[in-house]
Design brief:
533 residues; mainly alpha
Length: 533
């Protein structure tokens, strides 16, 4: 009963060897381990400063505006709230270039706003390229997600406290100060740290909207050093610098606050509004409308602009279908590997926890989330340097891109399945042992029945991350092997906006279709189970 499965330990060792081999290649290729030389170089110092600067501003905007949005959503019920919250939850894993295309179609030099200004004989007063575009895109992706996390904190307030506030005749401000703000304040460090980390390691957004050397981050500098300058030593040194900074940020975030679990929350709880006036209703409505105007128009533009004169041309182009097939292959294989690796790691870690060995369990699960400390582009750079001495790196592009994307999806699998797998083991371990259920038969009878929904959710998140990833494929992709995100980036770079619109719509449909299909399958399954009961 107390034997610990070894499969998770084997998977963890393989992952650690894979990552550390890439890091070792970086160390060998780096001209020196004097990271201060990066800071002493004027250009690299500017790149580092800009990475922190844009991350700080992006976090300030995203979390700062997410606070009143979350507060308004917690108090108000309206038609379409569920759909809006679902969109808020999905922006983090939405293919980046889909959102970027939608923003370009509205705020770009040839976008809707540019056409409106041109109609009145004026030029667009701002440029979406550079810091403006980076901040706008980061707000688009991170503000809704931050609002969703903060809303969850507000929804965790017991109903008795809401009743007590109403009974005491508190004003809206008093209730916020004494009841709601303490909850928000507990989660703000983690939410802010999470958003800062996401903005700091942002690659596709900066690559698409950066305004040249002036608006370059460390990750983009790594890509440029290897892909365009073929300066492998500079790329290795910058990758190590990026990893050190990310490691420091991750440790700081871990010390600031405990992670916030993302759940669906309770949207039907009764509201106890105190001293609800027209001014407060107007205030809340303004923030909800502003958040909706940030998220909905770019997605709607992607849908409507995707059906255009170039639709037939793109759909009959072999390059599109090769890219689509490559994307599906990468996403499916990477998601399967991530799911299998996550199940193996958690099978071992949960047994360690039940044997009161929490420290070893934490260490094994930490290896599964190592990609959070070492960004995918850093791992890709190390693999590039490692494999170039043995083989043609670009001939191994598919396997490298799959491996990196599997690593990127693994933390989400671990975080999604850790608690459900532990609960199932606690509930059924003795019954399964008494019935002699082991191995595959035990998984089929016990695990599969209880984990189908979280497993499907973990798979779909991994799938969406892989289908929209531009990091690894940007380094290893080319004319022979490219996915839809790389194909879309190439179309945007050559200003083929109508063709890019078709590809953007395809990516959006793939992402949304994945979640919708899984949701419908489980609704149908639930109905069948209810009928059987």
């Amino acid at each position: 009963m107390n034997r610990t499965p070894k499969i998770g330990l084997v998977v963890a060792i393989v992952i650690a060897a894979f990552v550390f081999s890439a890091l070792a290649a970086l160390l060998v290729a780096a001209p020196s381990l004097n990271l201060l030389s990066v800071w002493q170089d004027p250009y690299y110092r500017h790149v580092t400063e800009f990475s922190f600067y844009q991350s700080f501003l992006s976090t300030l905007i995203s979390v700062g505006f997410a606070l009143p949005v979350a507060h308004a959503l917690a108090k108000r019920n309206f038609k379409g709230k569920r759909i809006l919250l679902r969109l808020f939850s999905s922006t983090l894993v939405l293919p980046v270039l889909v959102g970027v295309f939608g923003l370009l179609a509205i705020y770009g030099n040839s976008g809707i706003f540019a056409d409106i200004y041109a109609y009145f004989g004026e030029e667009l007063p701002f440029s979406i390229y550079g810091l403006n575009g980076i901040l706008l895109a980061h707000a688009f992706f991170n503000l809704p997600y931050a609002a969703r996390l903060l809303l969850q904190a507000l929804e965790s307030i017991p109903q008795e406290q809401h009743k007590l506030c109403a009974h005491l005749g508190m004003s809206q401000w008093q209730k916020f100060k004494w009841v709601e703000w303490p909850r928000l304040r507990q989660q703000l460090p983690h939410v802010s740290g999470l958003v800062f980390m996401l903005c700091f390691t942002s690659f596709a957004t900066v690559m698409a909207l950066g305004g040249g050397p002036k608006s370059t981050t460390i990750e983009l500098a790594i890509y440029q050093a290897i892909k365009f300058d073929f300066d492998l030593q500079a790329g290795a040194l910058l990758a190590i610098w990026q990893m050190v900074l990310c490691g420091g940020l991750a440790l700081a975030i871990q010390r600031l606050a405990k992670p916030v679990a993302v759940t669906s929350g309770s949207f039907t709880q009764q509201q106890y509004l105190v001293n609800d006036t027209f001014a407060w209703r107007l205030w809340d409505s303004i923030w909800i409308v502003m958040a909706s105007l940030l998220v909905l128009p770019p997605l709607l533009v992607v849908v409507f602009s995707g059906v255009n004169a170039q639709l037939f041309t793109v759909l009959t182009d072999e390059r599109f279908w090769h890219a689509l097939l490559a994307s599906l292959q990468v996403a499916v294989v990477a998601s399967v590997i991530a799911l299998a690796a996550g199940l193996a790691i958690l099978t071992t870690s949960r047994r360690l926890r039940l044997n009161s060995n929490n420290r070893s369990a934490d260490q094994i699960e930490l290896i599964g989330t190592i990609i959070l400390v070492t960004p995918g582009l850093v791992i890709s750079t190390g693999l590039f340097l490692l494999l170039r001495n043995f083989t043609d790196v670009f001939s191994m592009a598919f396997f490298i891109v799959v491996a990196v994307n599997a690593l990127m999806g693994l933390p989400y699998v671990v975080k999604t399945l850790a608690q459900p797998m532990l609960q199932i083991e606690q509930q059924y371990q003795y019954l399964a042992a008494s019935l002699g259920l082991r191995g595959w038969h035990r998984f089929k009878v016990v695990e599969w029945r209880g984990l189908r929904k979280p497993m499907a959710h973990a798979f779909s998140i991994s799938f969406m991350l892989a289908i929209g990833d531009l990091g690894a494929i940007a380094l290893f992709g080319g004319q022979e092997f490219r996915t839809l995100p790389l194909y879309l980036f190439q179309l945007l770079g050559s200003y083929q906006m109508e063709a890019a619109a078709v590809v953007s719509l395809t990516l959006l449909l793939l992402s949304v279709g994945c979640f919708t299909l899984i949701e419908k399958l489980f609704k149908a399954e639930a109905k069948v189970n209810n009928v059987r009961r």
